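Researcher: Please predict.
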Amino acid sequence: MIQVMIANTPKPPYYAIIFSSIRTEGDNGYSAMADLMVELPSQQDGFIGVESARNELGITVSYWKDLESIRKWKQHSEHLIAQIKGRTEFYKHYKTRISKVERTLSLSKLMLIFNMLYTSINSVRRISTSSMSVTFSTVPTKVYLR
């Protein structure tokens, strides 16, 4: 069973490396290298987390504390080998982007609020979280997020 998770990231700012790719045919050692490239960063200073998905287009986003941590990861010896193999064996096309994360939004807080809505429909209530509040009436046909 494959476990799908969204990285648990801190309050911004932090940095993201967004790696988008289209694979070549065949494995050519890709699977083992991909597993290693998910495992090794977790041992590096400044690493926060990673998210990855692959179908025809692969997208991996790794999150880092600062640009210095990213620079060190780029120069890691096993990552350098993976970069060479990526260019010569694994990918038809790829693009790497580095961006600063300045703001995040999360659906999980909204799901918590909506679950509370359906279990507490008997009167007008005001539910607050640290970042938003919701007001609704006895029939939750309108939900206002502020």
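Model: Residues 136-144 have pLDDT under 50 and may be disordered.
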